[in-house]
Every structure is written in structure tokens, then in C-alpha cells.
Amino acid sequence: MRSALRCAIIVLAALTAGIAQGRSATLILINGKVWTENPAQPQAQAVAIDGNHILAVGSSDAMRKLAGPDCRIIDLGGRRVVPGFNDSHVHFIDGGDALASVQLGDANSAAEFRRRIGKFAKSLPKGAWIRNGLWDHQRWTPAVLPTHELIDPVTPDNPAFVWRLDGHMALANAAAMKLAGLDRNTRDIPGGEIVRDRDGNPTGILKDEATSLVERVMPPLSQAELDAAMKAAMQEAARHGVTSVQNMWDSTADLYSADNFREFQKFARDGRLTVRIYHANPLRGWKLLADTGVQAAFGNPVLRMGNLKSFADGALGSETAWMEAPYADRPGYSGLASSDLMDSAGMYASIQGADRAGLQISIHAIGDRAIHTVLDLFERAERENGPADRRFRIEHVQHLLPADAARFAPLGVIASMQPYHAIDDGRWAEKELGPVRIQSSYAWRLLLDHKAVLAFGSDWPVAPLDPLMGIYAAVTRRTLDGRNPNGWVPQQRITVAEAVHAYTLGSAFAEHQEQVKGSLEPGKLADLAVLTDDIFDMAPENLDKARVYMTVFDGGVVYQKGS
What we know:
Strand content: 15-25%
Largest sheet: 9 strands, mixed
CATH architecture of the domain at 93-215: Roll
Structural class: alpha/beta
């Protein structure tokens, strides 16, 4: 008995020290400062990798001894190492395509907006669509919405449909509206708004469900465009240390979810994926997956499915987030529930059926009324379907009723949030919500204090695909306009360690993968990021200066700064 116990202790000690027996390393990183996310061994000096899995974590000397005959050893020179970042909410193909489209995100005036669209139009063949854009009228003085008359003269030969950065409002030019048959006689559709002038004519601005009026006549990306977008997106991910993404259904009118998944499959089959993808399909089509027996997190280490997404409302910047009380600058108006949520019985039936089938459910909810309503639907499904490891998710959780923060942990609902939005929207959110409601906007501290699981992401291309900027936002809450040096709603700030956890192990948990990735420990997938600076030992206000030095994906170096 004592001998057996002694052997068990020796084995346990070896595992705790991160030393594996009988195997050799193909890649070893030494002389680093390794943040493992493993409570049994929080920090180390080096990591040894065997193929695409972590072999051991420990001291540089110990890891050197594990080198195989063709092992590559990289001296990190004291740089900080963290698990590969896992972005819990992206629109991956859209992000890659946006890199090649007109860039409107930092256009600081209507004149600059018009000039850039006009210049881009000249680079296109006649009839080609102008897409994406991701403009922000809140940068303009005054902050007024653009109209089609602003860009019609510079886009005479090209239909244009350019999106506001939140993805819930877009501007169509006259050519696009003509192709869509959109005019003063077009009726509004549930869950959307056609903005009109005083004579009832469409201005070109379409909100939420109304964007489908134009989206349905837009041609899909060509195969060449899809391939280019995919390659650009993977390069962008590698540059920012992102080794996993959770790809979301793009909009309530998304027609291309299947095309995007086929593209992911093609790259996976060819062995070209340099990022792991968990793909979400529309909730309304849950039976298509359920009838084939697919359940949450089905697939292989690089490509999986089984998550379903729906929408409860719109976005604050478009004034379509669904709020309990009216907008501060728009008396009597409280935003829009989505068309899915307007049929709450139908939406609940989908949630209940998909949950019974073992599928995961993620609901976009930004306004406090939308969040509260989704929590009610999840609570009912848990009560009626019984215990399960379901991991319901609410995407964004931006403007929360304070009392609802305590509901997430008991219900096992994950708060999938994007911290960069806070330092962006914080420039103008008080104008929309008033000084009281913003106190529980982007309420990371409040949620963590109530033991909720946070999973961090970017919403790329709505925001930059840069976890380090997200960490900066979560830790400082310093708005992009420089007007909040001590933080916007500073009581909701969190620590660097909490933010890194949300971007790694928290996001892995949100996709049922915490047993295989999200931390640096023996047996887990060999995904990690090496940083230029030690984010755990630098002034918070300087966190935005940190960069990724090297990205290791599946045991191989896929990015190195300056290389």
C-alpha cells in the first residue's frame, strides 16, 4: 500500500511539474515568462511541444532535456507567453473581406466619408458592388446620419451598401435602392426601420431587419473573393495571436452562412487553416442539425459546429437596442425587438427544441429589456428541459439591468462580451441612455462579482481583431476620444489576469473546449502567443502599446513580428 502510494505521489509530482515521460519535443520555447492559466502551475519559464500538443511546462533547463533529434529551440529573451487568444465572437469572412473594401471606420466627417467612397468606386468595374465600409457617424460634427444623396454623385455606376460599424444599420445609394425596388411605397418590416425624409422617401438608411431589402439582391462573394477574404482573415488572426475564433451568423438576413462554412471546410480539408473555428448556424434552422444528430461542439480540432445564434434586438449606435425605458434623446422610443423575439412563442420553441437536441444556443442581446427577456427564455428552457451541460450564451450583454447580473451564474449563462465596444461607445452612450443606466453598461466587474463566466471577443470587423486592445479596454475603460483618462464608468474595470482569462480559458469554456485548449498544460493543444511586453507588469495606460511578437498554432510558428 505504501509503495503504491509513494508511486502515485511521484507520478502526481511529475505531472504537476509539467514533465512528461517517454516523449520528446519538436519545439521548445525557453527563457520566457509563461502565464499558463493552470492553477496547479500558474507560471513557468518554458514550454515544450510535441507535434501539435503541449508536452511539458517548466524550467528552461528541464524543457531542454526533452528535445528530440530535430527539435527547434527558440529563446524568448524574457518575453511574456500566454495561451493562444480565443475570440468568442467574430464574423470571419466579413472581416477578411472588409480588409479589401472601402475603409470608412476613421472617416471623421461626412465629406471624408463621401471622398473615400468616391475614390474606391473609381477602382471598381462598372456594376460592382461597394460593400462593408463600417462607418461611424458619431465621429462627425454634427453626428447626423448620411443619406444616399451624399454618395450618389460619386457612385453613378456602382450600387453601394455600406454598413455602420455596429452591423445594424447600413446606407444604400440610389442604384442599390433601385435594384432592391425600394421607394416611398415600400412598407416597413417587423424588427426593422426604413428611415425616411419629411416627404416619406427613403433616405438610404436601413436598420436591422430592413437591411434585408437590399441584402437579398446583392450577389454573393465570388469564389476568388471568398478565398482572398479567408486568407486575409487568417493572416490578421495570426498577427494578433488569435488561434481560435467563434464565427457567428452575421445578421438576421444572413444568406451566406452555408457558403462561409463550405469555405472553412475547404481550407480545413486542404490543411490550410491556421486558426480553429467554431461555427454558429441560425437558430431558426435548428432542426436541420438536430435531425442529423449533430450536437454542440461536433467536429475536429480545427473546425466544429453545433452552436446556434439568433437575435433579440439591434444595437445602441443605431438606436435599435431594445431598452426598458425610452432613449434619453428620443422620448417615447425604446428601440426594437427582433422579428424572432416578436414571435416569442416561436423563438422559445426553437430554443427548447434545440436545447433538447443537445445544441448550444447563443442570443444577441444588447439592450436591458432584450437581455432580461432572453434570460427569462433560458430560465424557462432549463426548468422544462431539466439539467444539462448546455452553456447558453448571451452575445454582447452591453446594457444590463443591475439585478440581472445575479441571474447568469445560477442559470449557467455565459456572458460573451467585446470589451473594445465600451471604449468606443463610451464616447457617446450617455447621450443615448442618460447617467444612471450607463452605470451598468459593459458591467464586467458586476458580472464577475456575481460569479458569471465571461468570454471575451471582438465582434470583428465591427471592432479590431486585437485581444490586446480588448484587454486594454477591459482594464482601463479609457474611451477612444481621450476624455476619460481614469476610465468610463471606472467601477466596472477588471484586472489584466481576469481579462486574459476571459480571452483564453473563458472563451474555451464557452465553446465546450476547456479540456483541450485555453491553458498551457501537458496534453492540451499547442496554441500560444508570445508578447512584446509583459502585460502583467506594465502601467495599465500603456497596455495598448503591447503587441504580439510570435504566434504558435498547432505546434508551429505561424507569425513572427518583423518576419
